[in-house]
Specification:
This protein is α/β, with parallel strands linked by helices. Helix content is 30%, strand content 25%. It has 2 domains: 272 residues, 4-Layer Sandwich (Purple Acid Phosphatase, chain A, domain 2), CATH 3.60.21; 86 residues. It is built from 10 helices and 17 strands. The chain has a 6-stranded mixed β-sheet with strand order 6-5-4-1-13-14. The chain starts with a strand and ends with a helix. The protein binds manganese (II) ion (MN).
């Protein structure tokens, strides 16, 4: 039996307002031919199907299009919800999709038995614990007035109990059957990138891989976009997102994992590279340097490269600012697209506070600078340091 593990599609994702739908379309075409050529029996999608809890109509269309193509394949499809997904949105067409052998588990069910799915193919049997992203209320009781540290500890303990119950249920009802656990959470030891939305109050609530107690034969994780093995011995893997979702992922080689099960054992885990559809690049320097990098860029990829530019100039002037803006709007190299740009000056115009020099684009002002300016203008405040610290905490919690 062959099982393909993927996650974090983030259908509907935009990278700095640039729509990544084409990237996903190319990935879906590749995935479907991969399922056919490798004769995949089971497809696991470990959460973050959509980028938003309320996906756009275009995102729904793309989702249903790929599901429609799955229907003609002889492959069992299992999809779980991630922290970006709304359980209710994923579950809405659940019964309809069931009729096409597509199982969707949008959110944790009251009875854990409902998350155990058995699959039979090529004389092998498999049981999958389809655990979606677990919400606070799935794993712990909140206590009024509790401290931040207590909350983190309770979440960790809650996750441990939850997964230990999953293992116990397996041992009681399915023992000796090949066992896969799907999960959408932060397991400690993994390397993160910019595009994972923090779950469960930041990553401090990450749990250790020991939580799985070595019982599942394979753990199919989602949430972290950088593909990685958390434990090769215990077969605990993040397959990662199929496309780069942020500039911090520009060097990732994206992949899917293909598991071959024979005689109730893992025969092989193949890490299959996904063809790269475009490059993500960052160009930094003064305006002339960045300009010449952009003009001379010739690399040919199926989709244009997406570029982040950081221009550093010596002295602030309106002329430099206008030259920068003109360069961005007249950029005509069809091999690339500028999706993020920044202009920094070493010497700013004096007068107003530095961050608020004449002509400053609001996009160049950080939220904390903006907050400090507001405090400055507000007379009679005494505890400004405390307010600043509290504001920083909020920013951190919102991952800004
Ligand atoms: Mn994700």
């Amino acid at each position: 039996m062959k099982i393909l593990h993927t996650s974090d599609w983030h259908i509907g994702k935009q990278l700095h307002k640039y729509d990544l739908a084409e990237d996903l379309n190319l990935f879906f075409d590749w995935l479907i031919s991969c399922i056919k050529t490798n004769e995949i029996d089971v497809l696991l999608v470990s959460g973050d199907v959509f980028d938003q809890a309320n996906p756009s109509q275009a995102a729904f269309k793309q989702y249903y299009n790929v599901l429609r193509q799955f229907v003609s394949l002889d492959c069992k499809i299992i999809i779980t919800g991630g922290n970006h997904d709304s359980a209710a949105v994923l579950n809405a067409p659940k019964e309809l999709l069931n009729a096409f052998d597509i199982t969707v588990i949008g959110g944790a069910t009251e009875d854990i038995a409902d998350m155990f799915i058995t699959v039979q193919a090529k004389e092998e049997k498999l049981v999958v614990a389809t655990i979606p992203f677990l919400k606070d209320r799935d794993i712990r009781k909140s206590v009024a007035g509790e401290t931040y540290a207590t909350k983190i500890e309770q979440i960790k303990a809650g996750l441990q109990t939850y997964f230990s119950n999953i293992n116990s249920y397996y041992q009681l009802h399915h023992t000796d059957v090949f066992f896969i656990v799907m999960g959408h959470l932060f397991v400690q030891g993994s390397t993160v990138s910019e595009s994972e939305r923090d779950i469960q109050i930041g990553n401090q609530a990450g749990v250790s891989a020991a939580m799985f107690q070595g019982i599942p034969n394979y753990v199919a994780l989602g949430h972290i976009h950088k593909p990685q093995a958390i434990s090769v011995e215990e077969h605990i893997y993040y397959c990662g997102s199929p496309i780069s979702l942020s500039f911090s992922e520009k060097k990732d080689q994206k992949q899917v994992n293909i598991l071959t099960v024979k005689n109730n054992k893992i025969e092989n885990i193949e890490i299959l590279a996904i063809p790269k559809q475009r490059n993500l690049l960052a160009f930094e320097g003064n305006l002339d340097e960045v300009q010449s990098k952009i003009v001379s860029y010739t690399e040919e990829t199926p989709l244009p490269s997406l570029v982040e530019i950081i221009v550093n100039e010596e002295t602030e002037s309106l002329e430099r600012r206008q030259a920068f803006e003109a360069f961005i709007s007249n950029q005509s190299n069809s091999k690339l697209q500028i999706v993020k740009s920044r202009l920094n000056f070493k010497n700013k115009i004096r007068g107003a506070s530095d961050a608020f020099a004449v002509g400053t684009d609001v996009a160049d002002v950080t939220p904390i600078q903006m907050f400090e300016k507001k405090l400055e203008l507000q007379s009679g405040l005494e505890n400004t340091d405390e307010l600043k610290a509290a504001f920083r905490d909020i920013l951190q919690e919102l991952n800004l």
